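Q: What changes when nickel (II) ion is included in the input?
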Amino acid sequence: MQIIVAPDSRLNQISKKVEIIDDSIISFLDQMLECMYQNNGIGLAAPQVGILKRLVVIDCSDNKDIKKPLKLINPEITELSKNISEFEEGCLSLPSQYAKVIRPSKITLKYTNTEGLICENKFSGLEATCIQHEIDHLDGKLFVDHISKLKKNIIIKKLKKFKKKI
Ligand code: NI
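A: The predicted holo structure follows.
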């Protein structure tokens, strides 16, 4: 699996809902997790590897030895808190770039799990931020779309330079 680096129009597309959860979806989610761990990420969305499907994997465990993987099919935020929090965000599609992003601090998330069951859970802290960041990817948005145009342009310029080297 190859992670697409911004700027790339493939990262600005809206991903499609997954209608049938079959073995290919399950194994794709496992491959996404593997790819995320290999790159030391805490979240990965399918469009980042060129697949426009509403699939996300995250693992915000702060202990490297204890894995807490979450596989989300068609994740959808049903409630956002009024309270906000700020995290310094990064993204595997924006290597070595970081910026502080303000988002609601708590969310209620509806998603389908790998057994095909619809789940609804509340998340807070880093997990809430990470999930919002990943769902943004499914809607063609990046974390730099939440910061000032000036800061965004600086980051995009750096990435363009970086892409010329690789
Ligand atoms: Ni990202």
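Observations recorded in class: The radius of gyration is 15 Å.
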